[in-house]
Amino acid sequence: MNAIEIRNLSKTYPLFKVENVSLDVKQGYITGLIGPNGAGKSTLIKLITGLIQPDSGSIHTLGRKMPEQEVHIKQRLGIVSDECFYYEHLTIYEMGRMIAPFYKRWNDQTFRGYLDQFELSPKKKIEDLSKGMKIKFSLAVALSHEAELLIMDEPTSGLDPVFRRELLDLLADTIQDETRSIIFSTHITTDLERIADYITFIHRGQIVFNEAKDDVLERYTIVKGDMELLDADTRAHLVGIRETAVGFEGLSDNKVEAEQLFGSYALLHRPSLEDLIYFTAKGARKHG
Ligand SMILES: Nc1ncnc2c1ncn2[C@@H]1O[C@H](COP(=O)(O)OP(=O)(O)OP(=O)(O)O)[C@@H](O)[C@H]1O
């Protein structure tokens, strides 16, 4: 079962396009959305949440079609970001009162519990909240109406390390019942190494891969060796290469092939998600 099903989605801006994207986001899991600056992560999230309309293609969220069934979908969706505040002059308490009637499954007691847990004073005005506090507030709202799908655009980037860890634990707990799902865009890839089940990698408006995190980190490998190992064949094999005075470091998208190609002449080791972004942004070749 998929929480989100995207088919052949395209959106063109004057200098950028999301092109023919198809993507399944699995229900009951945490999916991390990664990619370099300007890759299209926020654009994809805005398309999914209906903030912008695609030129072509379709999006089904929680089994319902966007934008036709947007009102129904929004009841079951929690959007967590520091950007979705329209009433800056209201206090947290007043904003909560304003939001509550919109949701059929709103639980005021749960909301007050999260405000307390996240140390958010109900008397504080929205305009006086820091970026991290806005994230906490929108998370409290999402969790108080029993959202089945949390869509989070860089939720941890404005948070201190203590709350960041607490948030990651909270998210891991949130999906324990296997009916809830989370899609989570971030540059803090170590957060995803900690909690993500699936990774969606977007680059230049296209999906590079959408796979289980453990499979990705098993399939790719970092290759390190002396410069004399780099010839036309070995260069063509690597997705991206960093050359230094003492040798090279590169990313292979096929560990088995890399082992055959480089044998015992090079050092191979497991990449981090950050390595995948770095070498993909550096390289010209498409991943296999
Ligand atoms: N409304 C718009 N009009 C024109 N171009 C836009 C618009 N919104 C975004 N873009 C362009 O689309 C591209 C992708 O932007 P997007 O914000 O989706 O990237 P991102 O992956 O979220 O980047 P970052 O990691 O830097 O936040 C950028 O080149 C951006 O300038």
From TrEMBL:
InterPro entries: AAA+_ATPase (IPR003593), ABC_transporter-like_ATP-bd (IPR003439), ABC_Transporter_VariousFunc (IPR051782), P-loop_NTPase (IPR027417). It comes from the Bacteria. GO terms for molecular function: ATP binding; ATP hydrolysis activity. Residues 1-229 form the ABC transporter domain. SUPFAM superfamilies: P-loop containing nucleoside triphosphate hydrolases. The lineage of its organism: Bacteria, Bacillati, Bacillota, Bacilli, Bacillales. It comes from Paenibacillus amylolyticus. Keywords: ATP-binding, Nucleotide-binding, Transport. Gene3D superfamilies: P-loop containing nucleotide triphosphate hydrolases (3.40.50.300). The keyword Nucleotide-binding applies. This is ABC-2 type transport system ATP-binding protein.
